[in-house]
């Protein structure tokens, strides 16, 4: 039995314009858009703040406030910054692979 592993070369996964699809099926795009366009204060809820930090990132002043507000440790913040950097690397790899101008 062979297992097919999805790769970044999957041509079905790309940045989608609203003309192509009113609601994106690309999960990376949907997560970014959800956080970028919400009117919600993403710092209020601990889990939402955590996910926002991975996808969008917080600045250092915000991390100082969130550390106290949500009882995050220095290690929690260090890891979240690392996950955000890795998320951005995955995002950039995706965009490089699927840039329509290439």
Structure description:
This protein is mainly α. 54% of the residues lie in helices and 0% in strands. The chain has 4 helices and no strands. The chain has helices at residues 27-36, 46-55, 60-70, 74-97. Helix 2 packs across helix 4 (74-97). 8% of the residues are buried.
Give the helix/strand class: mainly alpha
Question: What is the beta-strand fraction?
Answer: under 5%
Radius of gyration: 16 Å
Largest sheet: none
End-to-end distance, in Å? 36 Å
* Uncertain residue ranges: 1-11
Number of helices: 4
Q: Count the strands?
A: 0
Described by the principal axes of the CA atoms, the overall outline is flat
Short description:
The chain has about 100 residues and is an all-alpha fold. The chain has four helices and no strands. About 55% of the residues lie in helices and about 0% in strands.
Question: Which keywords apply here?
Answer:
102 residues, 4 helices, flat, disordered N terminus
Blueprint of the fold:
Elements: H1 27-36, H2 46-55, H3 60-70, H4 74-97
